[in-house]
Amino acid sequence: MKIVKGFWKKGCRILGAVLCLAGLAACGEAAVESGATVESGATGDVQTVETAQSTGDATADAVTDAVANAVTDVATDEITDEGDAVEDAFYFRELTREEIDMITGVSYPAEDEDAQISLEELRYVHILHVDFDGQTREGELICNVRIAQDLTEIFAALYEAEYAIEKVRLIDAYGADDNRSMEDNNSSCFNYRVIAGTDQLSNHGLGLAVDINPLYNPYIRQGGIVEPYNAVDYVDREADFPHKITHEDLCYKLFMEHGFTWGGDWENVKDYQHFEKVE
Ligand SMILES: [Zn+2]
Question: Which of 63, 100, 147, 160 could be disulfide-bonded to 30 (CB atoms 3.0-4.6 Å)?
Fold first, then answer.
């Protein structure tokens, strides 16, 4: 009986993911890339996809084909095969021309030579996550190539554990305004910006830091300033509330396993949403 339950659970999760992908295609926002080359997942469970620089938009046909193939796969043998359709949804690749145009002047400096990180060092990361309603959602991040594999594996493990993350959108959807993103409880990574209250480049500016469920895990600056402003109910870390990152939290444990440090462990300020990997 346990096997049957597991079967249905896995099957439903995969179908949810496929519906999610199909819905995205219908909206014309699919990140399916034509011309992608697949390096087999020799580095781990999560398949890694790196493309040569994309030649352009995924066409509607390519998107339709990709979804049709995914549906076909699920309809045949994939439900019983550890959810390949789900694993395929976790990948990273170089930025497309369209993505470069979209972020330039928003989360990336308009003048390339001014930046301390090049566009070639950035990667687009595609994931699935379970939202606060238990629904499968697509998520997108941009990060430094140095942590792209880490993020792909961490988010895959969080998804497998049905760890709830409300939103994972590119910060450009918020005009690269970190406050707006945090207020909306959006989890994100790359944003070429300084540390709040300073003129020092944040590790988000190098694509080496990630914020998770920031509304429930605020940044408490020196002087007790809380960011985002609407997170005051979540400053008391002894209080009982959902989505709280602690040392017992799966998210914390996964980031630690991958060599990150946590802003909740900092001495002078506390940034409970923040994980970074700076070697
Ligand atoms: Zn952060």
Answer: 63
The pLDDT confidence band at residue 196, using thresholds 50, 70 and 90, is confident
What confidence tier does 28 reach under pLDDT thresholds 50, 70, 90?
A: very low
Output the CA 211–ligand 1 centroid distance in Å. 5
> How far is the C-alpha of 273 from the C-alpha of 167, rounded, in Å?
13
Residue type, 277: K
Q: What's the CA-to-centroid distance between 271 and ligand 1, angstroms? A: 7
Radius of gyration of the chain (CA): 19
For residue 122, how far is its CA from the centre of ligand 1 (angstroms)? 17
Task: Report CA(88)–ligand 1 centroid distance (Å).
Answer: 28
Give the global pTM: 0.75
CA of 32 from ligand 1 middle (Å) equals 28
Alpha-carbon gap, residue 178 to 180, rounded angstroms? 5
Q: Give the integer Cα–Cα distance in Å for 85 and 219.
A: 36
How far, in Å, is the centroid of ligand 1 from the Cα of 275? 7
Instruction: Report the C-alpha gap between 37 and 51 in whole angstroms.
Output: 5
